Structure prediction request, 284 residues.
Amino acid sequence: MIEITSLTKRYGAIEVVSEFDLDVSPGESVALWGPNGAGKTTVVRCLLGLVTYEGSITVGGLDAAEHGKAVRGAMGYVPQELSFYDDMTVYELLDYSASLRFLSPQRVDEVCETVHLTDHADKRVRELSGGLKQRLGIASALLPDPPILLLDEPTSNLDARARESAISLLEDLRHSGRTLIITSHHIEEMAMLVDRVVAMEAGRIQVICGPSDLADELGLKAWLHVIMNNGDSATALQVLHEQGFAARMNSRGVLVEVSAQGKGEAVAALQEAGLSIRDLEVWR
Prediction:
């Protein structure tokens, strides 16, 4: 479906993407993961033909540089920063977008149902929450029924409840047969949303692996801030040390260093020792 070979992008003397190679199969979901500045969005911009680049990109057998219009027609794009006409209703906005693409009003009804916006179709865009605006962005991208969806940090500006709703919607899209390319810096979302993760740093690929293997491949660590009941912090610290965890106390509880995928082991050790946890947080 998508073949990227030796993709390189420079701005003057600065190389922001270097020798990027990736093949994406039809129906596959792939995440471009990494910190801000890793080059994720630049790869997406190259796919969309928004910037010139070195190397080659083919989509469905078509060279993206030579057949830009046809390649863009196969893609729906949801940018990180969404911009709409705030005074239009959801339905008016999608109907206007559909008319520009010579699509029937029936398609508007279909995408509203797909992204669960039917009950909000008469609301003006300015009245929508962040989560509903995200759904509107996805609805707009889905109007022409593209085989490929590009989503740039689709959950980064959402609160916890809206993020959970967005992840559920993206899971549905993942199983709809479309090819998904998602950029993200949230490691927790990867296992739910994609088949493979391309970890990037400073424009280069560090590793390509399954989402459950990412933390181990990169040696990622996290801190659990564990708040105990009944003033048991000192006992909890002793238990964790005896189990080989690096841990220390602070004013509210115990901080314990764990692998990104091994947070449950520390919690289990405390529970097996008969200690009661009142609350915990994950720090990165």
About this structure: The chain has two domains: 2-218, 221-283.
